[in-house]
Design a protein that fits this description.
Length: about 260
């Protein structure tokens, strides 16, 4: 919520409790004196005034009601500054920008100068994104099964993959065409050879990769990206491995029972 319209009897103290925002901040955002009476029908900002601040010095776009929609990062920006300026948590920014939750610290785009950042989610069908997900052995999503009403945006918010990423991983999809229910979508390259991961792999009965045989030119980052893993996941599955190019045969998960399958 970015704005609030006051009703008769509202006070800063009561609004602070109801909105979970300190009375000091509400007063600051609206140039009010602490304890000042509030007239009915007053439009109050619940986020800082949309002006450059330290850590968020770029320009934003707003809708007709003044709600910020997008932000273009400036060179000295930081995630905390952008989060504070627009009254959003980092998790909300991640969701609006479909940043993969399993690798958000590596992929979070916000401080990159010139990057356009989404500040709001696009409207989607409530059913979109409610299909089943198949997670790999470390709890990262590998596949999604579509349902009626699905859209690229709805799926993207659920699995944290952008429209472009979903289209690249699933060549059978078209940007503006309906998505048939029951379609299995890749959420990582997996059976698609990728830069730095051109080798072959074995999979279990559900299609989840188990082992990987490297090819010349493979890199650790390439293998991690192709199979939707973090570096620690790879080393836990291969305790004798050393940092650097992956060995000729690399295990992609642990079947010892010490890693239960996450989130069915």
């Amino acid at each position: 919520m970015d704005y609030y319209i006051t009703a008769a009897g509202d006070t800063l103290a009561a609004l602070s409790t109801a909105l979970r925002l300190s009375a000091v901040k509400i007063a600051e955002f609206n140039a009010l004196s602490p304890g000042a009476p509030l007239g009915a029908g007053t439009k109050l900002r619940l986020i800082p005034a949309d002006v450059p601040i330290d850590g968020a010095e770029g320009a934003s776009t707003v809708d007709a009601a003044g709600v910020p929609l997008t932000y273009t990062a400036a060179p000295e920006d930081g995630t905390d500054g952008i989060s504070y300026r627009f009254g959003l948590t980092v998790e909300q920014l991640d969701e609006a920008n479909m940043v993969p939750a399993e690798r958000h610290t590596q992929l979070r785009p916000y401080p990159q100068a010139g990057r356009t950042i989404q500040l709001q989610k696009h409207p989607v069908n409530p059913r979109s994104g409610t299909g089943n997900i198949l997670y790999n052995m470390v709890g990262n999503p590998d596949y999604y099964w579509t349902v009626a009403g699905d859209s690229l945006d709805g799926i993207g918010y659920r699995v944290r993959r952008t429209r472009g990423r979903l289209l690249a991983l699933n060549p059978g999809l078209a940007a503006d065409a309906p998505i048939p229910p029951g379609t299995r979508l890749r959420l990582a390259p997996l059976d698609q050879a990728a830069v730095g991961a051109q080798g072959t792999f074995t999979a279990d009965s559900q299609g989840l990769p188990e082992t990987y045989t490297t090819a010349p030119g493979d890199t650790e980052d390439g293998v991690l990206e192709r199979f939707n893993l973090g570096v620690q996941d790879l080393y836990r599955a291969n305790p004798t491995a050393k940092p650097g190019p992956p060995a000729s045969s690399t295990y992609l998960d642990a079947r010892s029972g010490s890693w239960p399958r996450a989130r069915p």
